[in-house]
Design brief:
Blueprint: E1 10-16, E2 21-24, E3 56-61, E4 69-70, E5 74-83, E6 91-103, E7 108-110, H1 119-123, E8 130-138, E9 143-158, E10 165-182, E11 185-199, E12 208-221, E13 227-236, E14 240-244, E15 261-262, E16 267-276, E17 298-308, E18 313-317, E19 321-322
Parallel strand pairs: 4-10
Antiparallel strand pairs: 1-5, 2-3, 5-8, 6-7, 6-9, 9-10, 11-12, 12-16, 13-15, 13-17, 14-16, 17-18, 17-19
């Protein structure tokens, strides 16, 4: 029969770092002088100024235990190793070390812990001390993620005269934290062919047909809160040139255009004009079309940037987009 396992002298806590959300309140309409319930009763914090049409409270909501994780955002958390030895214990903790790795749906990636300089390892780990490390990881894939954290330390028992160590041992344990990364933006694309542009470089050469295409993209907000689109660009492949047909197009007399805001399940339509170039503008012939296995021309990739309701940045890059199959 195996002896019972002794509890560890160091505990490990993993806390996700995320911004709070706005809190809503719904003030009661201003009643008559003989009303039994005052409008202030519905406010989160009593105030002298009551606006019946303003539903935001001065109080911010802290996120739940973990919250939702979305593809395109940065996952941040702090790792806390806490000395749990009781006061007056004859044991000491030294050489505390943390190692973390992220298991994505496709691979396992070691994580960099910050700050790198660890004074606790050199000076010891006293009673009630806490070693904290920060990690950041960009979520690029949809699916299951596992944060694996390993903690190791040395536990030494001090003799009663406190002059020598009677025994010492190395201890370690490992904890796993699983979460799911959901899509923040759903992107659906469609490519249409336009009549080719006819060019003639001279009498000695025959006319050239330069292909033209239109790329349409539908962006749907899949989160539970609003997001603001900062930019959407099509990084075209040579020999193609892209022209945006969206809100960022320069207009005469308009200096600033507000970025679109997508509420949950809102859909935004974007479009780009893609034209094949005859040369690179310096008289040099451009590179040939990059052709996929099915014979379709590779046009480029969509690059999308947005911010959440509280300003958290997010980004998404699609795979290579191609022309229609002829």
């Amino acid at each position: 029969m195996e002896p019972p396992k002794e509890p560890h002298s160091v505990s490990l806590k993993v806390l996700r770092l995320s911004r709070p959300t706005l809190s809503h309140q719904y003030p009661l309409p201003t009643p008559g002088p003989n009303a039994l319930i005052k409008p202030k009763a519905a406010l989160s914090i009593p105030t002298a100024n009551i606006d019946e049409k303003f539903v935001l409270s001065p109080v911010l909501n802290l996120p739940p235990a973990f919250g939702s994780a979305y593809v395109g955002e940065k996952f941040c958390c702090t790792l806390c190793g806490n000395n749990e030895l009781p006061e007056g214990s004859d044991r000491t903790i030294t050489s505390l070390k943390m190692i973390a790795e992220m298991q994505t749906p496709s691979q396992t990636i070691p994580l960099k812990l910050a700050p790198e300089d660890d004074k606790t390892v050199r000076s010891g780990f006293g009673l009630g001390d806490s070693l904290q490390k920060l990690i950041e990881f960009e979520l690029k894939e949809e699916g299951n993620y596992v944060l694996a954290v390993s903690l190791s330390y040395s536990e030494t028992t001090i003799s009663k005269d406190e002059r020598s160590a009677s025994s010492g041992r190395a201890r370690s344990f490992r904890k796993l934290y699983q979460f799911i990364a959901q899509p923040c933006l759903s992107v659906r694309t469609k490519t249409s062919d336009l009549p080719p542009a006819i060019t003639n470089n001279g009498a000695k050469t025959s006319a050239l047909k330069l292909s033209r295409h239109v790329l349409e993209a539908q962006l749907e907000n899949m989160t539970d809160g609003p997001i603001t689109l900062e930019s959407i660009n099509l990084n075209s492949k040579e020999p193609f040139k892209t022209t945006s047909l969206n809100w960022d197009v320069s207009r005469p007399g308009v200096d600033h255009v507000q970025s679109p805001i997508l509420a949950p399940r809102d859909v935004l339509q974007a479009a780009f004009l893609i034209e094949q170039q005859n040369d690179d503008g310096q008289g040099n012939k451009p590179a040939r079309k990059e052709v996929a296995k099915d014979g379709r021309a590779v046009l480029g990739q969509l690059d999308i940037h947005w911010r959440s309701g509280m300003g958290d940045p997010g980004f998404l890059t699609t795979g290579s987009l191609t022309s229609r199959n002829r």
